[in-house]
Amino acid sequence: MEEFFDIYNRDRIKQHRQVRRGDPLPPEDLHMVIHVCIFNERGELLIQQRHKTKNSWANLYDVSCGGAALVGETSQQAAERELYEELGIMYDFSEMRPQLTMNFTRGFDDYYIIESFVDVHTLQLQEDEVQEAHFATKEEVLQLLRTEQFVPYFESFIHLLFEAKTAYGSVKNQ
Predict the structure, then answer these.
(1) What would the mean pLDDT of 139-145 be, rounded to a whole number?
(2) What is the DSSP code (8-state) at residue 164?
């Protein structure tokens, strides 16, 4: 099944145009991506190992889930869909805002950070997307990153995800 994405301008205003996954985007056109980071009660991050057949970062570990928003989806709807598709977890994002948004060359990447009880033994992994999932401490994630077994995020970004798991904003105890 072909996937289509909405096109946004640099101010994040939808342009009422779409693009098919894999088609080139003109420099002024951007699209929206989401990531969900699930932390357990011990402060560990649920990480997934990307499938060996993925076009980008095959076999590498990544945060809990992520993907592009499809045509007509809000950021929250994309987060709900991706989390359910990749891991079989239902979660209501309708009243949430992303903890942070990272701009990248081709778009916007919204990060949702949630604390939730998840039993990894009951996850329903999407066969063509995810090979394995487990909880990892910050030190374990950083070690995977340093040994090139994790999607190559900036190390400081991993620290930020672990720090931001309990509050919105950039000021402590806000």
Answers:
(1) 99
(2) G
